């Protein structure tokens, strides 16, 4: 190991990731400490990595993170994930983000912070490729100032944000490919709860624990759509037929308008959901390339049409917790459509 270039040692430490392991490894010799200071690319402070994090007060954790972080140069990936009991003061958090903004490509921050601050004001937006934010608000999005030209992955969990700012944030990410939003606190500006998002580059969209009257997503390159634990009156996807994978899990929706985007759909997975049959039929009848169909505990309303021939389906999985007399008839009809 003594003959390893210090740059290689930096790569090894970066693969360790955990701040605890990196600090311990750097104590072995001067070269490893030099690698930590000058060639470390990834650093993680995560309660899952070390149980002691959960036993130390927030103030001591802030000091440990500050001392460790400020001894690095050229950091590209930073993860700070603490349990719900910890609350960090905003002053050191801003210092951490500001000190790494010129080099950071990936930022994952999941800690309650007091008082509230707008993290997208402080992070380095020009280089950032991955941003994962949880339990913090996005207070304002200014399209003239907040631009993320390189951002490819965005994840928001338990984040407070207005519907307008959410739309502006996606518009500020011209290269965004993956977007995940879980349990958001969305502020609406009018009486009817409506959200409209637009992204020409988005390929994967995951949404969980979301309740809104009307949700419209315009994404001409979308390939993977996953809805989980959601309630909509209207969910509409405006695309160009690029959708390949659609998963609907524990969703109640009155109007599901995505039929025009399913011509290249290959996988459809519906689990514990309530959907109007005519709209489901419209969607499935246009999916001529469908290869895998999974329906489990699905409630259909107004089930008065059969399925068109599903010529390309090779995997069919059906299941209900409550089976009526018509179940066998319906299954037989499905099997006939899947030669």
SSE-based structural type: alpha/beta
Tally of structural domains: 2
Overall shape: it is elongated
What are the low-pLDDT stretches, counting only 5+ consecutive residues below 50?
none
| Count of helical regions | 9
Total DSSP E strands: 19
What is the strand content? 25-35%
The radius of gyration computed from the alpha-carbon positions, rounded to a whole number of angstroms, is 24 Å
Structure characterization notes:
With 339 residues, the chain is α/β, with parallel strands linked by helices. The protein has two domains: 1-115, no CATH class; 190-339. The chain is 24% helix and 33% strand. The protein contains nine helices and 19 strands. It has helices spanning 6-16, 19-26, 30-38, 58-69, 90-100, 119-122, 163-171, 277-285, 327-336; strands at 42-46, 77-81, 87-89, 106-110, 112-114, 130-134, 153-157, 160-162, 178-182, 185-187, 194-198, 204-218, 224-238, 245-257, 267-271, 274-276, 292-296, 299-301, 315-319. The strands form four sheets. Strands 1, 2, 4, 6, 7, 9, 11, 12, 13, 14, 15, 17 and 19 form a 13-stranded parallel β-sheet that branches. The protein has a two-stranded parallel sheet with strand order 3-5. Strand 1, helix 4 and strand 2 form a beta-alpha-beta unit. Helix 1 (6-16) crosses helix 3 and helix 4 packs parallel to helix 5 (90-100). The longest helix is centred in the N-terminal third of the chain and has 12 residues, at 58-69. The N and C termini lie far apart (61 Å). The relative contact order is 0.06. This is F-box/LRR-repeat protein at1g67190-like protein. Residues 4-44 form the F-box domain. InterPro entries: F-box-like_dom_sf, F-box_dom, LRR_dom_sf, LRR_FXL15/At3g58940/PEG3-like. Pfam families: F-box-like (PF12937), LRR_At5g56370 (PF24758).
